[in-house]
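Researcher: Go.
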Amino acid sequence: MVSSMTGFATVARELPQGTLTLELRSVNGRFLDLQFRIAEDLRAAEPQLRELALASLGRGKVDCRVSFAPSPLARTGVALGAEALARLRQLSEIVRAAIPEAQPLRVAEVLNWPGVLGDDAGGAEALREAAVDAMRAAIEQLQAARAREGERLAAMIRERVTRIRTRLAELEPIVPLAIAGYEEKLAAKLREALGAGDEERIRQEIAIFGVRIDVAEELSRLAGHLDEVERTLAAGGAVGKRLDFLMQELNREANTLGSKSVSRELSAAALEFKLAIEQMREQVQNLV
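Model: Structure:
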């Protein structure tokens, strides 16, 4: 299977403590570049989340965002921390004495203050486990999205390969005729320049130039590179770098074909090839 580097996934988990949301966004990149934006309550889970991403994802710039919306009123059976509450009250009085216009703390702010709801090590562990579980689910979603996009890009590349093959087949009978016609024109000009008596010299010059303008080798190499593109797509896996190299080789042969062209049709075909190759190259840049 061929995968793109572009994809998106989001997973939400409803917990007694609140709602955990994890998002993965992936775009193309030369290597695997992981960026994490994680809520402070979940910072301890980052190493494990990073490890999961490194083990599962190939190339690409991946942005992971983990947010947590606490629901303090949903937590029942949790005793208030009397010491923390008293300390918070003392601090609040000091602040309001110094700044009379300061607003009093709201209930939600008090309940979210560290220590007010007591130590909740079990809740923190449950939150970390939920984040890890969400990461696994998000990676699975992301891989599926990247695979769908990869197949779409592969289909587009195969369509361009078929288009180039069709054009190559059309050129096959035309090339010898174009070269022969050009050689006749060249022979006429040489006879005019060298005189009709030097036929051997004329034949030698035509033979030498005929070798220079023969594009059979370029057409053969183009077909061979197209075969390799199809084999690479069929093999699947991490194909991006291999296909990018093949696009360079295809473009080189198309350039040579254009420079050796001796007819308008060959020149037009070389331009068509370069356009199709560039379209493939743009899509290849997105493949893992």
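Model: The chain has a mean pLDDT of 86.
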